[in-house]
Design goal:
4-stranded antiparallel beta barrel; SH3 type barrels; single chain; mainly beta
């Protein structure tokens, strides 16, 4: 399992665990497939922001 801090590691359709904005305080993970990569920079210290195929947006914590 890779961390989600490098944009190059994240691909469309990949299974990931993200932290949604409303779950940042608890760190609760939400699982899904990447629909769109929203972060443009090559890295981000809190994780690359993605939209899941459910429409939810969060920062990648783990690539499964």
């Amino acid at each position: 399992m890779a961390s989600g801090q490098k944009r190059a590691d994240i691909r469309y359709g990949r299974d990931v665990a993200v932290v949604l904005k409303e779950d940042q305080a608890t760190g609760r993970l939400t699982y899904g497939k990447v629909q769109k990569i929203l972060t443009n920079s090559p890295t981000h210290p809190h994780g690359i922001k993605v939209r899941l195929n459910t429409g939810e947006v969060g920062r990648v914590k783990e690539i499964l």
